[in-house]
Amino acid sequence: QVQLVESGGGLVQAGGSLRLSCAAHGIIFRVNTMGWYRQAPGKQRELVAAITSGGSTNYADSVKGRFTISRDNAKNTVYLQMNSLKPEDTAVYYCNADLITAQAMGDHWGQGTQVTVSS
Description:
Elements: E1 3-7, E2 10-13, E3 18-25, E4 28-39, E5 46-51, E6 57-59, E7 67-72, E8 77-82, E9 91-101, E10 105-109, E11 113-118
Parallel strand pairs: 2-11
Antiparallel strand pairs: 1-3, 3-8, 4-5, 4-9, 5-6, 7-8, 9-10, 9-11
């Protein structure tokens, strides 16, 4: 069974930095686009950033210039470096990956990691 395992969330003061990691584990034939979404209380889940297998990136306007997404294809891992964090970045962050595995193909989700930015 394929799992996306996230790490790196936590509590940080405004202006600080955090780095999230997400590794895909299991029998995986191909990893396509990987990305990070977030969901704040009372709000819908939104795309934060995504990166294709070729390295093309896409960011939400609210994080452009502050967040950087990257990936290590050899490790099936995606990262999100978050700088200049703001209280409005507080949310549960979810890793997403479009995978082809031994069991299925399509979107897979991590369990979520809490990011809290204090003012």
